[in-house]
Amino acid sequence: MVMKKLINDPKNVVNEAVAGFAEAHADIVRVSHDPIFIVRSDAPIHGKVGIVSGGGSGHEPLHGGFVGYGMLDAAVPGPVFTSPTPDPILAATQAVDGGAGVLHIVKNYTGDVLNFETAADLASAEGIEVRAVIINDDVAVKDSLYTAGRRGVAGTVLVEKITGAAAERGDDLDAVVAVAEKVNSRVRTMGVALTPCVVPHAGEPSFVLADDEIEIGIGIHGEPGRERIKLEPADAIVDRLLAPILEDLPFVSGDKVLLFVNGMGGTPQVELYIVFRRAAEVLKQQGITVTRSLVGNYTTSLEMAGTSISVLKLDDELTSLWDAPVQTAALRWGR
Amino acid sequence: MTLNEQPDAAPTDALITLDTAWIVRWIRQSAEVLAANRTALNTLDRDIGDGDHGENMDRGFQAILPKLEGLAVETTPGAVLKLLATTLISTVGGAAGPLYGTAFLKASGAVGSVESLDAAALVALMTAARDGIVLRGKAESGDKTMIDAWTPAVNAGASAHAAGSGVGAVLLAAADAASGGAQATDPLVARKGRASYLGERAVGHRDPGAQSTALLLRAAADTALATE
Question: Which pTM value belongs to this model?
Fold first, then answer.
């Protein structure tokens, strides 16, 4: 596979993308280029809990696309698929500290967790109260003593939206942390890859799939999943993804849920709606009501073709926080 | 040097100490060795991780080289270790940056402001480094991580010191044990880091972090023995 990308130099991918993002969304964000982070244009907001997320680039719009009113105060993009170092995380934390403490929302990958922890130590040493919530919604990985634990994937978007709304309405740090943990505990995700992706500085696919193969349970960097199988019709694939999600929480008849069908970057919207249609049908058969929905490319893996399905068990509080106004580059309503 | 060759500990060896100039030589030697092993470490990491360990370590150790020029004469070994720690934390990224950074930060604290390091100080330095990695990464022996190189190194260094060895022999014992420990990660299933998602598929591959630890401790022994 030849690398065919709209880039200039692999070394400048993140810098140039962030520069373009800053120009395009100057009404919502400011950007620091050294160290590199994206921050709400009105940060820091006095008395509001600041929310910072980040991680390797290549998952856009995660996380920069979610910086703005009602969601993140700052996002820290690392190199493609590599965690940012503590310096920019610390700088972003300082930039959003309005005196009410700062929450780090961290996807459960060893590099992200360690770099955010180190940054939190440094921020604490400077008198900023920092708490972290680790997102681990991926049911494809066994959560046991024998792995680094479940990965944080597309469910992160839902955590960021709902927690951001809690901070925006004025919740204190303890309450904001509690909301983030509540969402994380009630969301489950599973993904599938139809094609691999090419990391710009690597220049070759991160893994190889035969023309007729798909990988069930993929992570967002092309890490291996549960099993590799022959391509099947969309409905059969959806059933394979949904079954482990539903039995994990478990989701039961009478539940009200948010159904989130996420694109991995290389799958068209038309296919994502085919996936949504089947997932909604299966949920209905099981007596589970979809009361909120989200469909689109929100947690991507460069140009990988594939999808992930997330199901979040809602209650009145989470529903109203989901509905609360948000104004970011990638999610915008009510304002 | 293989795992089984025992270095001779001359009685006078115990009197020799290592100063800031040695720490600087060790860092420079490490930078050279890591640059030479960049591709090899990337390959180990591609097998069971994300393929950038050699890249990241090389970037970190290249970043400290200019900072070693023009160090004040009175700079202590502990201060150089701290400079190494902060440089690695801010340039390496991934998991290795915070892990090695924390290791050398703790090592710096353990040696304090002494001007030169005797064998006891080296053992304290290595112990603190290992404890820092455990604290940050929460890995245990046998998890297929850099701890599997560090812990045998600390134990071998401490035994050599207890037996009356000097600085060179202590570091040589540690380096040999680290090499053996890195090799011993080959058959393990990983329980920490990205390799843990592979389950049995990680068997037969060396942990890249254990391998880079072995390279760093080998450089320490080589530069110390050249000092003597």
Answer: 0.87
